[in-house]
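Re: weekly structure request thread

Next one in the queue (334 aa):
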Amino acid sequence: MAIFAILLVIFVSYSASHYLADAVSGQLSRSTVMSLILLKTIIALEILLSMALYLSIALTMRRLCTDFEMTALAVSGVSNIRIFFIILKLCLLFAMLIACLSLFVRPWAYKELYRLKTQAKTKFDIAQMEPGHFHSIGPKSRVVFAEKVDSHKNRAERVFIQDEHNGALQVTCAEQVYQKVDMTSGDRILFFLNGYRYKFAFNREADQILKFKQFIIHLPKETMPVEYKSKATSIMQLARSDDPEDIAEFQWRLSMPLSTVLLGLLAVPLSRTAPWQGKSIKTPAAVVIFAVYYNSVLMAKTWVGHGVVGSVPGIWWVHALLACLFLALIWKQR
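Done, posted below.
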């Protein structure tokens, strides 16, 4: 639990630094950022739990070795096979939990993640904009720029907004803009003060220039369809699909419980050391092995998703190499 808590704090800190930058720039609201961080953490649980179990077994077994407790167990008649079975039961318990996370919780979390990101693209709040930056808003790719933003007064100064409407490019520039929300429809209404509105027609119609003291733009609620994503697809749909990305995602979900068991068992021979060698002599090796293994699985998943490698061997060859490493360490320690 201690190792899992440390890994969780590191991951949440990394995710927060990534999404908080979008919140500062006005692309995401604070509530959306918190929801995205929570969903990303839920998605990462399958990896964090597997790594925490692996490192915990390695550190615990090494502690037992350096404190002569493994020697005492051996003298008392406790064989290595019995120890393996005890750890195997623990790994199988975690594998069942990770299987639930990978097969069912993971697609739900990704579905919610993509839905929130899609909603965030359609929302526009001038008070949340970062001044001095261009922002692309909504499915119609509106481009908005404000030189100065007062979030307390919900106003912006020297604003530029560009969009397309009825086959024409429209550009509106104003000294000041303030925003209100229609309580009935929920639409956002922008009030432009003292500016110009330019309309550039793509056909042969004449261009238009309008000078105004006040100009109003209604921004109705827009919806963007959520694109098909393999990560947000149910396991049954992935099983029936022939698409390489779906196959890669399907094999990833099935392999997560297997990798949990393999890593847990690998930690036992990896932690075997003589009592006089110290408690942390093989800790870097355990971390390096996990990093190489995890990145190799990601690389194999990418290859399968791009069609470079077929469904056979798919990503299974990485797990086979890990199993061979486990057997080699067992054979060496005989």
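The chain has eight helices and six strands. The CA atoms of residues 8 and 48 lie 7 Å apart.
Next request, please.
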